[in-house]
Design a protein that fits this description.
The complex is a heterodimer of chains A (166) and B (268). With 166 residues, chain A is mostly helical. Helix content of chain A is 91%, strand content 0%. Chain A starts with 5 loop residues before the first helix and ends with a helix. Chain B has 268 residues and is mainly alpha-helical. Chain B has one domain. The longest helix of chain B has 48 residues. Chain B starts with 11 loop residues before the first strand and ends in a 9-residue tail after the last helix. Classes of the chains: A mainly alpha (166), B mainly alpha (268). The interface between A and B is large, with 34 and 49 residues.
Chain lengths: 166, 268
């Protein structure tokens, strides 16, 4: 027994020392390998993930804001364009309408003129025919009367009479 | 009956061949088994959304990591030190606290011990054995040296103790710095002794505190068994925690000191 020495009095025994060291080593190994390593990794992973998530959220927020701005701008542009289109369309339509009206007026006037000339010429034509007819009639009538014994005086009278009536 | 005061040396309970199994070894083996079971449970618990025991374990790890961070100021270093510092802390804490459970010191075998028959407790707090605390202290100090060598290189680490490099540098400068270098060489040699002192102080502090607590509780229980020892029980719970913190914190400081490079030219 080594009880006489100081280390012996304090109970130091290399076998027990080694046994305790091994026990402690096992605990440390388990703690390191099975607890700290996986959990530490999980903790780091989670932290990274949360950071990533927050960053993503920020990014999305910014993107959303940008998009909103873009949308408002685009809406303004589109509205302006639409207004423009509407205005030009109205203008064009008005112009066409005006033109159509003017054209129609023109056409109508033309037709009216045509009709008037037609009527005029027809009137002259028929007048001519009528005159001819009347002349023929007069000649026939005068012949009839002359045949019905008429003096020269009467004849002349008749002729002038009938001529007057024309 | 009168309880016998626990002797300084852990009592042998049985023999495996010519290997003596003491009651403190039984207690530290219980700790091993408990940590083993805990490790098996936690091994595959790496869910991103923690529940139950994983949550608990994570919160404890985070607290310890926070403490380590305050000393190292470096998360990477903290993660390296966490297994050693956290393992020491949890093992010491667990050993101290199961030593307070009823049954420790009272369940035992009647054996012939030092000449006469007496009750030898089956369980005795692991840290009331100097073998245990010395094993941890030696481990902690050696680990700090290993970390130091890995962190700053063998020769530069050796220069902390045997400052031949500093003497060599001082000759190039000449003058008073040669004398300073020789004095610092002596200081470096003293540092070697302080490393031994670290082991002794770490192991004896823990052993002394826990052993004294055990003696105190035994004495009180043998005087008045009921109610009166309770405040001292609470005190021992506190002492168990404090000693675990002190041991692991000192180890952490040693680790941190060993892995930081001394400002070489700062004092020249």
């Amino acid at each position: 027994m080594e009880h006489e020495t100081l280390l012996g009095t304090l109970g130091i025994d290399w076998k027990l020392f080694l046994a305790q060291l091994i026990n402690f080593g096992i605990v440390l190994f388990i703690f390191w390998k099975w607890i700290v390593k996986p959990l530490g990794k999980t903790l780091t992973d989670r932290q990274e993930r949360i950071e990533q998530g927050l960053k993503n959220t920020e990014h999305t927020e910014a993107e959303k804001k940008k998009f909103e701005e873009w949308r408002v701008n685009e809406m303004k542009k589109v509205r302006a364009e639409a207004d423009n289109i509407l205005r030009t369309t109205t203008d064009t339509a008005n112009q066409i309408k005006q033109e159509t009206i003017v054209d129609a007026q023109h056409q109508a006037n033309k037709i009216l003129d045509q009709a008037k000339t037609n009527i005029e010429s027809e009137k002259i034509q028929s007048m001519k025919e009528i005159k001819q007819e009347v002349a023929t009639l007069v000649v026939m009538a005068s012949e009839k009367i002359l045949r019905g014994k008429l003096d020269e005086k009467k004849d002349k009278e008749l002729i002038s009479e009938s001529m007057k009536g024309m | 009956m009168i309880f016998a005061l626990p002797p300084l040396v852990a009592e042998p309970i049985f023999y495996l061949g010519n290997f003596t199994v003491t009651n403190t070894l039984i207690n530290s083996s219980i700790a091993v088994v408990v940590f083993f079971i805990l490790g098996l449970i936690l091994r595959n618990k790496t869910a991103l959304i923690p529940t139950g025991i994983q949550n608990f374990a994570e919160s404890i790890l985070e607290i310890i990591l926070g403490f380590i961070d305050r000393v190292t100021h470096d998360r990477k270093k903290s993660m390296q030190f966490l297994p050693i510092v956290g393992g020491l802390f949890l093992f010491i804490l667990f050993s101290n606290w199961i030593g307070l459970l009823p049954g420790t010191g009272s369940i035992g075998r009647y054996l012939i011990h030092e000449g006469h028959l007496q009750l030898v407790p089956l369980f005795r707090p692991a840290n009331t054995d100097l073998n245990m605390t010395l094993a941890m202290a030696v481990f902690a100090v050696i680990a700090s040296h290993l970390f130091g060598v890995i962190a700053i290189g063998f020769f530069r680490y050796a220069n902390k103790f045997i400052k031949l490099g500093d003497i060599f540098h001082s000759f190039r400068k000449g003058g008073i710095s040669i004398m300073v270098a020789f004095i610092e060489f002596g200081v470096g040699l003293i540092e070697i002794f302080s490393e031994v002192a670290k082991v002794v102080s770490l192991s004896l502090r823990l052993f002394g505190n826990v052993f004294a607590g055990e003696v105190l509780l035994t004495v009180l229980a043998s005087l008045i068994a009921f109610v009166v020892p309770l405040p001292f029980m609470f005190l021992e719970i506190l002492v168990g925690l404090v000693q675990a913190v002190v041991f692991s914190m000192l180890t952490l400081v040693y680790l941190t000191m060993a892995t930081t490079e001394l400002p070489q030219e700062a004092h020249h």
